[in-house]
Amino acid sequence: MGSERRNTLPLKFKLPRMDTLITLRNKVTPCKKNNFICRYGRILDLITTPIEVSALVALSQYYDPPLRCFTFQDFQLAPTIEEYERLLGWYVKDHPPFTKLGEPLMPESVAEALHLPIEEVSLGLGPRGFARKFLEEKAWALEKEGKWLLFSAILALLIYGLHALDRDHARLKRKSEEDLELLEESRKKAKIEEDLKEKYQEGLAQADMGLSSLLSLVVKLTSHFYNTQAKQKIAMERIEQNQTAMQEEMAQVRAQLGQLMDIMQNVIHRQEENRQANPGANVNMNAANPIIGNGIPVINQAHVEGMPNNPNDAHTYHVPIQGGSQAGTEDRDGDFFMPRNESVYEPFGPP
């Protein structure tokens, strides 16, 4: 994994004036120095520690305001609690932590810690704390009066104020808070962009699904249309075949009817010839019911003058004629004849 390129930030460092603090430090005797170290740690050495501006510029490029440490790619350059204890000679287990961070400092608490009257604390304590000039004047006054405990407390506050609680540190804190706000805004923007991207991808997926569904529907409708056309074509072909068969059957029926008409004409012609040949024959026809139900008159065996009364010499003819609706009766031979009271007898011999 390659290292990311970082832009160099231009920084300005303001070196505090240390001559007054060095003079106050020199007022501390070795015996009093041990007592001071026991109370506040080895913070007197911070006054005389040389400041390497180039090192500060280099390290500041990797300073992370939200984390308040130097962050590198592979490790973090931040002292541990044990390292702080060794550097300051001040053990945390012997001093409970201050648990009232974030709460406003009351003048009574500050006066008790600095061993100062409440009136002086109220006059000197401003919105950002004590002014350096106020603390230095108070330290010189206490040193002249020989009040060592009060002098040590003011000196420790001056050292902490320059190295730990300086205005530059407050500025860095505000800058870190601003960076946190910017980071939160950038995270919100990134989340919004990610949500929009997900919704866009979901919209594209739904559009693809809708398009595929539409294509499948079009394919189904097309196949159904062609199947319907094929079925209609098959049905029309069957109808045409049925019509052709019906036409053929009707032609056959017409041919049979023509043959029957020819037979009827021949029969009628022969009857006329027989009548002309035998003018003395008497035929009794019932004018009321000369026709049976199928429209065929019955010429049955009759008593005809001049004709033999032999059944083999007489024949029954079924002649189709127009009209007629009365039903007849079927005999044992399958021939139809009129009822006996309405029988039609005609002397007619075989052709």
What does this structure look like?
The chain is mostly helical. Among the domains are: 169 residues, no CATH class; 70 residues, no CATH class. Helices cover 56% and strands 5% of the residues. The chain is built from ten helices and nine strands. It has a three-stranded antiparallel β-sheet, with no helix packed on it. A hairpin with a 2-residue loop joins strand 4 and strand 5. Helix 6 packs across helix 7 and helix 8 packs antiparallel against helix 9. The longest helix is centred in the middle third of the chain and has 111 residues. The radius of gyration is 68 Å and the shape is rod-shaped. It starts with 18 loop residues before the first helix and ends in a 14-residue tail after the last strand. The C terminus is likely disordered. InterPro entries: DUF7745 (IPR056647). It comes from Pisum sativum.
**Rg value:** 68 Å
Oligomeric form: single chain
Number of E-type strands? 9
Strand content: 5-15%
Low-confidence stretches: 163-170, 282-351
Order of helices and strands: HHHHEEEHHHEEHHHEEEE
Dominant shape: rod-shaped
Helix content: 55-70%
Instruction: Give the helix tally.
Output: 10
Mean pLDDT: 69
Q: Numbering strands along the chain, what is their spatial order in the largest sheet?
A: 1-2-3
CA-CA gap between termini: 126 Å
Pfam families: DUF7745 (PF24924)
Organism: Pisum sativum (Garden pea)
Protein name: DUF7745 domain-containing protein
Keywords: Coiled coil, Membrane, Transmembrane, Transmembrane helix
Entry summary:
The protein is mainly alpha-helical. The protein is built from 10 helices and 9 strands.
